Write a sequence for this structure.
């Protein structure tokens, strides 16, 4: 059974639990990047689904592109085989290329998420 981290940092993150169960994927819900990094040290995921928030101005100490940078650096160390699916709002889509230029992202899906599209990504 595959393990998926669902990093839920906003109310806009869709509840895809039923889809994950249908596909036989075990989901671990985490509500912060810090908790996700701590979990990485215990059990490496096969998949990560997380929302992307661009670091406008100084929101992320001026060094990081987004909310995902620190987690993705840790992922390289603890679970380099994990495939990352980024969810982005229409507003944030314009900035996702900055993240994909720095990290290996398996797929980027626009919110609201099309469950069929996500299902296809998870089965690829």
């Amino acid at each position: 059974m595959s393990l998926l981290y669902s990093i839920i940092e906003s109310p806009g993150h869709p509840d895809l639990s039923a889809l994950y169960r249908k596909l036989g994927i075990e989901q671990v819900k985490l509500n912060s990047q810090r908790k996700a990094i701590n979990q990485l040290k215990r059990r490496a995921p096969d998949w990560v689904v997380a929302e992307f928030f661009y670091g406008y101005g100084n929101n992320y100490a001026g060094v990081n592109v987004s909310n995902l940078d620190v987690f993705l650096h840790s992922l390289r160390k603890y679970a380099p085989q994990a495939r990352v699916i980024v969810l982005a709002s229409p507003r944030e889509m314009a900035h996702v290329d900055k993240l994909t230029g720095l990290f290996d992202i398996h797929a980027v899906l626009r919110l609201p998420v099309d469950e069929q599209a996500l299902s296809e990504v998870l089965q690829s």
